Amino acid sequence: MNLPSISKCFELMAETKMLDNIKVHSIMVSKVAILLAQYMRQAGIPLSLELIETAALLHDITKTRSLQTGERHSRTGARFLRSLGYPEVASVVLQHVRLSRYSDSSLPSPSEIVNYADKRVLHDQITDLAERMRYIEERYGADDKKRQRIQLLWRDSVRLEQKLFRFLPFEPHELPDLLRPK
Ligand SMILES: [Fe+2]
Questions:
Q1: Residues 111, 99: contact at Cβ < 8 Å?
Q2: Backbone phi and psi for residue 13, each to the nearest 5 degrees, phi listed first
């Protein structure tokens, strides 16, 4: 598996002129994703922390540009990372808004963890799923069709949360406390 180093991730953020607020959001998503993944590894689930960390840091790599162009940043981010030779990171980034498949029975995957972590971070703050989804609805639910799609995403994200927390020794609302420096 070819993964960028952490410093390469930050270089890419600089090269793509990532906005500061998107950068701090990405750093917080990576902290959440790593924490979840560490607990899951303790529960015996094999996961690459390096893949999860780098994909979380890079999940919004084309988001800054998308604010101008209107491109689908999950797709273009994945394409960009694939072109750099990081197909595994690209696959996680492709699925960070919506997973290509929701499964209750498979073991948690890096894509599921990064997708969920992104839904627990509003700007650079930990939030709950409902607040984050309300924000998405307000910001992106311009018409009925979009609102409907967001409702489906909400439903699937609740399912995803339930699935992931079957493998974790704490509850969703305890996440902010666990991330606070001791
Ligand atoms: Fe994003």
A1: yes
A2: -60, -40
Centre of ligand 1 to C-alpha 97, Å, is 6
> Residue 100 corresponds to which tokens in the numbers above?
């290509």
pLDDT digits 0-9 by tens, 103-157: 988 999 999 999 999 999 999 999 999 998 888 889 888 899 999 999 999 999 9
Dump pLDDT digits (tens) for 152-179: 999 999 999 999 999 999 999 999 999 9
pLDDT digits (tens, 9 = 90+) for 43-101: 999 999 999 999 999 999 999 999 999 999 999 999 999 999 999 999 999 999 999 99
The distance between the two most distant Cα atoms of the chain, rounded to a whole number of Å, is 45
- Interval between CA 25 and ligand 1 midpoint (Å): 10
Ligand 1 centre and the CA of 112: distance in Å?
A: 14
Query: Taking the domain 6-177, which CATH number applies?
Result: 1.10.3210
CA 181 to ligand 1 center in whole angstroms:
26
**How far is the C-alpha of 40 from the C-alpha of 26, rounded, in Å?**
21
125 CA to middle of ligand 1, Å? Answer: 15
| Residue 1 CA, ligand 1 centroid: distance in Å | 23
- Residues whose Cβ atom is located within 5 A of ion ligand 1: 60
